[in-house]
Structures are given as structure tokens and as C-alpha cells.
Task: structure prediction
Amino acid sequence: MNPSLELEQFVDRVMVELERKFGSDTLTDDPKSESVSMEVKGAVSANASTLTTIKVPKPKWQEGLAELIESTPARIGVWRTGTRPLTKEMLKFRCDHAAAIDSIYGEVNEQILSRFDLFTVETRYGNTENYLKRPDMGRIVTAAGEELIRVKCRSHPQVQVVVSDGLSANAIDANLPDVYPSLLDSLEAYGLRAGTPFFVRGGRVAVMDHIGELLEPDVLVLLIGERPGLVSSRSMSAYLCYRPRKGTVESDRTVISNIHPGGTPPVEAGAYIGTLVHKMLEQKTSGIHLDL
Result:
């Protein structure tokens, strides 16, 4: 089930319970303070339209506000009651905030890692609190991790795929089952060979440089959980780099961000990553120097 839909249903159930306990007059629209929701036609394309709920009472440009709300999942025109947000909007905000915290402090489902035969190494991050304060510790694999990588992985692979929780373990759980198979299919279609994939716990983007030193791949692909927001706590990024090594600068990396059902579709992202890898190998570069 869509996690956003689950939260919406939860908030609706809480609102019903609050109205039962305190009465609807204290929670529903008040003509003196809260908004009166209106259903209006909001154009989403040249050939389609949808109903949009406008919470702002008597907006000066109703169609423009509807179009703005249609264009972004951000909190636009949520309105207020007095000086505070509407009860339902406040509850939704708290739910989204809690989901973001869960993403940062959660752990990737071991069944997902086992499903794709990903062994695990750790960085020197120590724990989540330290990870947040010391990004540099998430860029270095532990000595035990280095040894495990050398033993289990093939050196000098054409393409090395690495997965990391980063700042959202939920992003890996939600997107890897679609992204990873699509990526492998795309690499196979281009006749490219992938090395031994693995999972890095507590990784930062630049951990790919350390791994690059260890395995010396032609291209390294890092699938990593993004910093969660209040719109999506399950968003993944894919960082790609041609021959990453110590001293690699950020402009040498190519990134696909916002990989989740409400952003870049995971299956589509996996296929496109394969296309980017193919271009990098052809042009022997990545980042700002890559001609797309």
C-alpha cells in the first residue's frame, strides 16, 4: 500500500475520533476562522483536469491557486484557524515529520539484502548520532569491511554496484526491489558486466571513492537513501562516477535524485542508470564532463 495513503487514512481516523469526542463544531470549518473547502477544476495538462480542494477562503485568483497546488506536493494553501494551522493539516505534518525521523533512525530490512544477495560492510560511522555529526566517518569503510570487500568482490569490474542506507533506510526498502533488477537488465542490454554488489551501512556519498580505491572499477554506481523531507521520506538517489578515487570532486559525479513512486519512477530510474553507465564508458568520464 502507498505509505502516503496509509498516513492520510490514519489522520482521517484520528479526525473522526476527535470529532466524536469533542464535537464537530470545535474541529470543522468555522466561517470566522477556518477555511471553507471548495472543489474547483484545476488544469493539470492540455487534455486533462482534476478536482482540487482549495482550503483558502475566497482566494483572489481561484484558478491560479488551484494550478499552483496541482503543480507541487508541497504544503501550498493549507490555510489556518486563527494563528495556528488547521487541525488535520497539523496532524498530517506531525505524521510526515515522524516518518522522516523513522527513515533516519531505521535499518534496512535484512530480507531485502538477502533477496539480492548483498553482503554487508560498515563505515566508521559508529552510530546514528555520530553519523549525523561526523559525515567524514561515513566516507571510510572499516578495516574489517575492507578485508571483506577484497575477499568477496572481483577486482577491476566494469561496473560496481553498491547500496547504502545513507539518510533513509526506508528508501532502500521501498525502491531497491524495483530499481536494482531494472538496472541489471539495462546493463545486460548494453552488454556490460557488473561486479559483486554489496551493502554499506552508515555510508555517505564519498564512500564510493574509498571503494573505488579498493576495487578500481571503471564505473561505480551507488544507490543511497536521500535526506528525508516532509513530502517523501522514502526517496533514493543514484550517484555514478567514472573511476572514483581518493580526491574525486563532487562535480565528477552524476546523480539521479528523487527516485520514488511520486518522483522518478524506480523502474525507469534503473533503466536510465544503465544508459548513463554506457555513456560514461564510451566517453571515459562522468559528472559535468559527461555529454548527455
